[in-house]
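Homework help board

Subject: predicted structure for assignment chain

Our instructor gave us this sequence and asked us to write out the predicted structure in token form, then describe one feature. I got the tokens but I'm not sure how to describe them. Can anyone check?
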Amino acid sequence: MIGELIEKESIDISQIIPAEQNHTEELRDKLNSAQRLGNEFKSKADISFNTKEGPRTVSTTVWSVTEKYIQLKNGIHIPLSSLLAIEF
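My token output:
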């Protein structure tokens, strides 16, 4: 796990910033697997992303993955450019 573990309700989207390196392409397969796990099996993934206060990790289900964002429950969108790691 990278960074502090937080609840998805604690995500402040205004604090999310791009990661030093864009990991979108190397995480693409994991993003698609996390979406499938969330939609078909209601399984959670640990998603680490970059914020102004440092890395944060949230354990939640992934609802969808678009070209630029990962969508979580309650309409929370995290930019793919801010992702650091995904684990399940």
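Reply (TA_rk): Your tokens look well-formed. For the description, you could write something like this. The CA atoms of residues 65 and 71 lie 6 Å apart. That's the kind of observation they're looking for.
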